[in-house]
What does this fold into?
Amino acid sequence: MSFFSPPFAVFLTLGLLAYYQAPASWRPRILLGLSLVFYVSWGLTGALLLSAVAVLVFVAAILIEKCQPEQAKLRLTALAVTLLSVLLAALKFGSAIMGLFRAGSIAALVAPLGLSYYIFRTIGYILDVYWEKIPAQRNFVSLALYVSFFPQIVSGPIQRADDFWRQLDGLRHRGSGEFVEGLRRILFGLFKKIVIADQLADLVAAVHANPSKFSSPELLLGAYCYSFQLYMDFSGLTDIAIGIGLLFGIRGPENFDRPFLAANIQDFWRRWHMSLTTWLTDYLFLPLRMSLRSLGTAGLLAAIFINMVAIGMWHGPAWTYLEFGALNGVYMMVSVLTLKKRDAFFKRHPGLIPARRVAGTLVTFHLVVLAQVFFRADSSRLALAYVRGLFTGFIHQGTGFWRLHNYWSQLGLSSFRLALILIVVVATDAVSRRHLERRMLGVPTAFRWGLYYAVIALVLFYYKTSMTFIYAQF
Amino acid sequence: MTRAEIHETLTGVFRDVFDNPSLNISDTTTAKDIEEWDSIVHVTLIVAVEKKFGVSFTTRDVRRLENVGDFIQLISSRLN
Amino acid sequence: MLNSEVLADKRSMTRLSLRLAAFLLPLLLTWAVVEWWTARIPTTYSTKRERLNAMSDRIDTLILGSSSAYFGIAPKELSGTAYNLADVSQTLYYDDQLLTRVLPRLPRLRRVIIPINYISIFFELNDSFEPWRQYFYEQAWSIPPMRFQDRIDIRLWSRVALFTPATVVGMRPSLRSLARGALILPNAPVVMDDRGWFNKVPADNNPARLNEAAAANRLAQHHAKEMNAAYEQPNLAYLNHMLSLLDKRHIQCVLITLPVWKTYRQGMRADLWSRTQNHIQDLEKTWGVRYLSFLDVPQLEEADFLDVDHLDPRGAIRFTKILNQALQDLDAR
It folds into this structure.
């Protein structure tokens, strides 16, 4: 069941009732039961695979910890990590690779729900045990729950094992504060996804379907809209995931921190999809960098580039994802190489520092928008056509916006609704940041509830069902 | 080397890597406390320390570091 | 956990539940009010039912079927008092259910016209482009959706969910017109005459609407989405049920096929159409019903057709006159 379906609402309500009526010591087990039911609803084979991975990881971690000789420890870890990685790669890229060689039956390999997420969680856990950062988990329920925790299994965030278990231990003392915060997060997450992201989808799809038909300003607008759509969609989904976790008293890690305000590209990647990038930093970049450190700058650049390509490829077997990663790799390499010189320059001209902040943010934003064109494009060819259009489209197609006008008006944006949406957008971004959240709680209840009612109304208004207005002519 | 000596040499390395002659570090300093200290600089720091003290670290060593105090501890154990 | 902790925990949970209830109350109240208000808004389905009831003691001919009949048969052109109970995408399941429900209310009924067109035997509403119409049947006539899984849906009783909140907000009716009971939806003028015939179809003179490409499009839509062999047997069962009901009451049943434009006719798949023809022949033999095929009516011209398989109002009047003549010839024999 998807998060947006009626059966899920029923499942969640019943689950919460059981959770809070039962004795507190049962809570981890109830959560595990709920996660199992949730996962099975997506397919039995996937559930069996998930269970197998949980058992494998449980046993492997304990063995690794118990193992004394360093060589054996390393070999065991390498074996476990390789197995998990191969599983991920095979299920994720298998059908694409087979398609390349036109071998075998392509239909068979479909990646089960949340594979990328739970494989990353388990690899991180095993490596942390190997590096002796955390002790191996001796309680199977706790481990299985970490692997399968249903609010985070669909699309993250990727929580670290020690953080998760610390929360689990504290469950008995959780009050109602998190519950309400969870409801708020879910509400604003729904708003971001349904009222904003889904409404921009048609406009974005139109420009990406046929980029050579549009002028540069139109393509630029389309690119801005996509970046905004992507941010709203993903941060909305994350908000819903974190919110559902909070309903049960478990706080997941944040994924976004006002990414479009980043001062440079390194800063951007510290603010966007944070749980993934920190994971890659700790479990890919750092070990890679350490092993390449004797190669000096070349080693650094290689590690950065590989890391960025990994971020791209993690999203799936498409050339455009590879291009997205590589482009970001180039951005990062250039930025890292020139950072010291840029810093030195601005130290010599301190009056220019505010300008640097503004220019840096704008430049970074546009670099990101450009890279995300590749991320969205349906093929490399279309991506290149889009980029070409961005720079030369005003020659062939003029400078008008009028072709996109009907998408804009479809949004039904009266100035009242627009103002309301903008207010809520500001409020929703405030919700993700803890210190502003506290400020929001200071606002009188009547205003807060009014805001919530407005959000609910907007979500209901913009929720698209498959029905057209009954009097539409056949 | 004593702990104090390690601390002093380490401070020198930090000041060099972060290009800040007046930087000060204590046992409780972490990456969050210094603005330019990100994952890329982190390894640059590690390499600089390895060179300065003539020691070698493993990834496990690096992953277990929580703050500067841990770092000094680690350097000390490697030197002896 | 200490007892005092347990108590404090329970107290905070109770407080929380109360606050949640207080928050939800205005929402639920608003919803209830809007439901009540939208329930008073007439729809095609409720209007058809009301008008049928108003004339139930006079109706002697009942017309069932889908949009081709809803647009194409003008009841006032038939002798006697006819009523058009056809509607868009109305399938044989719904024809059967409606007939079962209204038969007891029509004492004067002596003839029922059941249209069978190219897709009728293979078509089901829940598998079409407009499955939401199932819920209008439920709300107006208490006819449940055919499949069990469609019966667990809030749209069974909620008007707001069925119209969608966006539509409801757009309705903004005036209270005065509500009081008058008029059809007040802003973009839904009165489209039916008082005998249930859809007579306000927008004029369209574009000749391209009837060409080969248009026919090919329509037929492709039928073949790809709307026709499924799995529905053949159930639909026959509904037909047989209707015919048995009518047979018992000695009410004459006439099966007809409504006119289509020649490009559509040329594009129809012969194997599928002959299957339907065979079934009709079987029914003729079993129940003694008569079948009148108007698939090709030479008197009808381009201006009579709205599109390749629907008549426009002018065509409907002309066609119904022809139909009426044919029915009278039937009676004469």
About this structure: Chain A has 20 helices and no strands.
